[in-house]
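Notes, p. 3: input format for complexes.
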Amino acid sequence: MNANDTHWTTAITQIEPNEVRLRGYRIEDLMGRISFAGAIYLALTGSPPPESAIPLLDAILVSSIDHGATPPSTLAARTAASTGAPLNAAIAAGILSINRYHGGAIEDAMRLILELVQAASDPAALEQEAAALAGAYRQSRRRIPGLGHRIHSADPRAARLFALAEEAGIAAGGGRAMRAIAAAFAQQAGRALPVNVDGAIAAVLVDLGLAPELANAFFIMARVPGLVAHIHEEATRERPVRPIHPTDHAYDGPPPRDWPPGEQP
Ligand SMILES: CC(C)(COP(=O)(O)OP(=O)(O)OC[C@H]1O[C@@H](n2cnc3c(N)ncnc32)[C@H](O)[C@@H]1OP(=O)(O)O)[C@@H](O)C(=O)NCCC(=O)NCCS
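Output follows (265 residues plus coenzyme A):
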């Protein structure tokens, strides 16, 4: 239908008889040729991602797929499942618990990084601006988003994302800015806090030119499969309405093993 003959328009997907086009591309041409993460970038931004960014976008989604049974969204999803809620309701319970203090650090870190990124091409200016920002946070006793972790003193996911960004040639001002703020905090506080996965995702998303408003969406899209796994396990392994202790639980899945599978000696 002609856009002028309708009440409103959308620029995302065009549907005609026997034809589905995402941002102009035939869906069957994308299928099998672009990863799900690449298609997400295309859907959100309207353009295909640079080829080198696709493994990085995938890595962002993989990095946050699950973090055990303790995160609030997981506990919320399991609690809902335990009451007999259907899958969609239990997923919704989990997603509704992803907010400012859980998952929200990615957006806050992106905004912080964007404040610094202008200075990122000049190391001296970056150091100075990062010191000023870290000082302002410390003075107002606010936590710097993207730094620190309850469990990890060196977040393996952050290190890997930075390495992949470097490999892809996408590591730019965002990564430099996040590391500069971590260094400034360490210098001022006299102790270091690790850049966490949210800080690393934020740096990469800034370097990929994504809007901070989309940050939480990346965390949610990454975490939904993990939530589904927990909901299914709760429904199939546990009795209904059991008391779910938030931290007193143990892992009984496969023992540590190496990736890729099948290459063990
Ligand atoms: C993730 C987080 C909640 C973990 O907290 P934690 O290790 O349990 O830290 P604690 O609450 O025990 O705090 C330990 C100390 O480090 C400080 N601290 C922790 N993270 C900090 C941060 N990001 N910025 C400044 N100070 C921080 C705390 O203020 C506290 O100081 P104090 O002992 O002088 O009171 C915390 O680091 C944080 O709020 N980070 C920012 C938000 C964020 O990036 N979240 C994403 C996590 S993946």
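The chain has a mean pLDDT of 95.
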